[in-house]
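Today's session is about reading a structure prediction critically. Students often jump straight to the picture, but the first step is always the sequence itself: look for stretches that repeat, for charged clusters, for runs of hydrophobic residues. Only then move on to the predicted structure, which in these notes is written as discrete structure tokens rather than atom positions. Here is the chain we will use throughout the hour.
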Amino acid sequence: MPVPVVLAGRTVRLEPLAMRHAEGIAWAGALDRASYAYTAVPHGLDASCDYIARALAEQAAGKALPFALVNPLTDRVLGSTRFLELDYWRGPLVWPPTTGVPHGDPLTAVPDAAEIGNTWISAEARGTGVNTEAKYLMLRHAFETWGVRRISMRADARNTRSRVAIERLGATCEGVRRAHSRGLDGVVRDTAFYSVLDEEWSAVRGIIELRLPGLRPPAGHASAYPGETREHGGAGELLPA
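Below is the predicted structure for this chain, in token form.
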């Protein structure tokens, strides 16, 4: 599984999701529940603990890398997101192919493709740029640190807000898969699929940086964007990237 990291931005900090975030997740998820019609968001402390436990079980199995979205000024939890559908294309070619299993040491694995999903933010963080910056941090880490070939995103076809947000990032719509799965409301839903490829990342990065004030560096200067830290092994020590 990929090494957990802290991704630090101006309006949001992405921390590896942990049980210590349970109260914050419960608080964030309690705001404006009506807006979560298409997204699974825990309600209450017990549900939040279960939500985190299930996310950590997926992380332990190498299936996901979940984050808590945190306000860097107040340390208040603003929501959650994760990398999932991690896929590995390196090593010897075998048939039938085995997805989600890295070649070599699984504790230092780097995926070749992944999905960003299970994203939700609290009502107080909407319209503040938090969602855009969180996606930027994750995309930048995926393409520039991991060196992935592809990042995917998806949304319930009825979820106009999420689809517009993804499209504004510069992601390409690959189409809508009809009658793809059962939605949270019990209705069999269509799902819209999006992607960004490695050769598109430079252009997509430019689009996002223009939307985030103060982010784009002057011409001829290196990016002044905050760095990231890594959690080293199981010790939990944060080291500069």
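Discussion point for the tutorial: Residues 216-224, 232-241 have pLDDT under 50 and may be disordered.
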